[in-house]
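Final report, Chapter 2: Outcomes

The project's central promise was a pipeline that accepts a single protein chain and returns its three-dimensional structure in a standardized token representation, suitable for archiving and comparison. That pipeline is now operational. To close this chapter, we reproduce one record exactly as it appears in the project archive, with the input sequence first and the structure output second.
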Amino acid sequence: MKKIILILVLSFFNLTFSQTTDRKLPAQITTQSYYIGSEAGCTTIWVGVFSTTEGTTTLIASGEVQIGDGCPKRSSSTNPNCKDEELNGDFIINSLDKSYKYCLIDCLKVDEVYTLFVNEKNRLLSSRK
């Protein structure tokens, strides 16, 4: 019985702390963004952060970004490991998927990743005009 309880506690610990901000991002990072929609002064795009290692590209974080003054700026995510928050005027909603290695908000706080994201965001928004 003690073994079962220990396994359950360790499993919970692993799920709770599997997405952490203490890990250094891989060296080769790219971002991709896709337009989801616009409504009442709020544009929503999907953002993915990818890592490429030894020729293999892996999605390491994703979520939605709400852009504009009409956005509700409230969290709809129930992922307890990744907190949704505002970043430079955009509202970042982390994926509900808890299997990603990183949280989108934490990736976007890294200057190089944020620059890649802004370029993608501007490309998407300019193509919608």
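Archive annotation: Strands lie at 29-39, 42-53, 56-67, 85-87, 90-94.
This record, like all others produced under the grant, will remain available to the consortium after the project formally closes.
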